[in-house]
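Worked Example 4.2. Consider the chain below.
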Amino acid sequence: MAFELKEEGFKLKDILMVVGIPEATYHYHLKKFGEKDPEKELKELITHLFKKFHERYGYKRITKELTKLGHHINHKKVYRIMRELGLKCVKFMRKSRKYNSYKGTIGKIAKNRLSRRFSTPIPLQKLVTDITEFKCLGEEKLYLNPILDLYNGEIIAFGIKKRPTLDLVMEPLKETIEVIKNHAPYRTTIHSDQGWHYQHNQWVMTLEENNIFQSMSRKATCADNASMENFFGILKQEMYYGEKLVNYEELKRRIKEYIYWYNHERSKEKLTGMSPVEYRTHSSQLAA
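Applying the procedure from the previous section yields the following structure tokens:
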């Protein structure tokens, strides 16, 4: 640029004076322009990780993923680079109406065996379950019922239906029972709220027939099942809120995809940076 202007009769210092740029600043940037960016590879890796995790990770989680790959980088540096690259997690929490399946006492009300003791070092010892509702495009709704293991936060099984029928909870329960029969080292407890599904004779009898303890939250006390509420919050924050409404089948596909990702790839700090499945596999290898 400077050389072209000089051929036409303009002097560089005169041009810089007109545009208000110091000559030293001009030469500094001219020199930097031809230099290789020393952070190019790091920036490419951070961008790759951000996209790999579906733009759901902020700088703290990206820093942990870099550490897992052997790159020990200060989180402030990762924050700066992500800010420069415009890589920002734009998923935010917002209030959503909670599905309430309580219809009064229509069956058996079990005692609260968990009493908010949500941690356990034993797989399949304490399981929690609940139902949440999603709005789809048009007038349709989607109902999700997962069963979560408090040992590692893994979703053992789940049901998805257009209506909150009894099958919504019975189908994942039967899947979970098969897992319990093959892998549970101790007697299992399944905790829920007092929704009509969990008071239903078919649910109660299935638990009793398979020697599973039943546990229930106190009425209108969501903190008694905080682990399940936390999962619903994370799921909706990371793949539902802020997105355009889609039809039932598309939302069903996205939820299935998310739960697989949550189980197999999404790292958790309390699991030493591993995903639920990685933690379970790692622990079983150590035990062997």
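Residues 74 and 261 are 27 Å apart (CA to CA). The radius of gyration is 27 Å. Compare this with Example 4.1 before moving on.
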